[in-house]
Amino acid sequence: EVQLQASGGGLVQPGGSLRLSCAASGITYAFYGIGWFRQAPGKEREGVSCMNSGDGATFYADSVKGRFTISRDRAKNTVFLQMDGLKPEDTAVYFCTAAFNGNCLRDLDARGQGTQVTVSS
Fold first, then answer.
1. Partners of residue 51 on adjacent β-strands
2. Backbone Cα Rg of the chain
3. Cβ contacts of 4-7, under 8 Å, gap ≥ 24
4. What is the Cα–Cα distance from 66 to 78, expressed in whole angstroms?
5. Which of 7, 26, 46, 101 meets the CB 3.0–4.6 Å disulfide criterion with 2?
6. What three-state secondary structure class fits 36?
7. What three-state secondary structure class fits 18?
8. What is the pLDDT of residues 16-58, one digit of tens each?
């Protein structure tokens, strides 16, 4: 069973930073994409950032490029999302996700529980 355990959300002021973590287990695919989707009230789900497990290639939504950075600790099967320069429009529930075929910014085959990120003064 695939498990994606997310942590690290919270309340931060505009311009601040947060780091999300996702501990993955139970993934049996040799190659997959792992990363983050988010969903804000009244808005569609959005792929934020993801990374290919094989070559480490990274992908970002245009809305977060230059502000968010995805990284990993392969030994711990953990992926991190460093979020800098946070804006109120980044407020959402962030989900750690995995895609086993296709585009990991678009496709979602497994999802962990969400963590709330609130950007407000």
1. 34, 58
2. 13
3. 4/34, 4/96, 4/97, 4/98, 4/110, 4/111, 4/112, 5/96, 5/112, 5/113, 6/94, 6/95, 6/96, 6/112, 6/113, 6/114, 6/115, 7/115
4. 22
5. 26
6. strand
7. strand
8. 999 999 999 999 888 999 999 999 999 999 999 999 999 999 9
